[in-house]
Specification:
Order of helices and strands: EEEEEHEEHHEHHEHHEHE
Shape: globular
Oligomer: single chain
Number of strands: 11
Distance between the termini: 27 Å
Strand order of the largest sheet: 4-3-6-1-2-5
Structural class: alpha/beta
Helix content: 10-25%
Bound molecules: adenosine-2'-5'-diphosphate
Strand content: 25-35%
Length: 269
Amino acid sequence: MRPPNKISAKPGPCTIETVLEVKHYTDRLFQFRITRPASFRFRSGEFVMIGLPKEDGKPLLRAYSVASPFWDEALDFYSIKVPDGPLTSRLQHIQPGDEILLGKKPTGTLVLDALKPGKRLYLVSTGTGIAPFASLVRDPETYEKFEQVILTHTCRELDELEYGNEFVAATKDDELIGEMAREKLIHFTSVTRDDGPVKGRVTDMINSGELFEQLGVPALDPDVDRVMICGSEGLLKDMKQICLDRNFVEGSNAAPADFVVEKAFVATD
Ligand code: A2P
């Protein structure tokens, strides 16, 4: 192993944190865990800027959803590796002990505060868009506010589902949140370019009704259902349309409503 990379440049609007763990899931996907400053507060579902200094010492930053729960002592992030991406082409080589830049101001719309009360919460994701939901499904408030939480994850290939399968299993096993998650959390996965148990885009399965049949729940209804959407541009556009067609109103921090949308960051780096 090489010696750890330390940051000597001024971090600008960031703190300098240390990488604790790195796990590579596929040749396109990896997770990393970093130290969390005592002053760093965030709401489940928010994102923050993460990065490394450029050659000239200035920070090169990208937005990353925090994937760990707010009560965790460290911070987890889930990232794609973009071969020529200015940041992820370097970030994918980080090792424990390396230093990394962390922004000071988490923000975002995928927060419980942006939704009106409801019965059932849908967390609809593709690819790395699942990351903010890894935080939300470990927040007790999610289960206090909703009777059922349905996390959907669609990826191209089966091995891209591993990250989600892993944190859902850990969530159901967790001392703090396990009992609530076992009772209320449903994890629905599908793949589009591999042979899997369920094949197809979640949007097609919503339009055909197949999703609701498989889950044994009624079709989307703005009176009782709330939706958070995170993933590729295509998913955002199509899933937003599905919500609008069913008379769901888009919410925000300032005006909570029926659904919220955020693109999965660093999809293109
Ligand atoms: P598909 O293979 O049919 O394009 P990506 O890796 O490109 O970000 O895609 C992640 C997953 O999101 C893929 O399974 C992809 O399906 C799916 N996807 C892409 N566009 C849409 C969309 N408009 N609605 C739903 N799923 C989508």
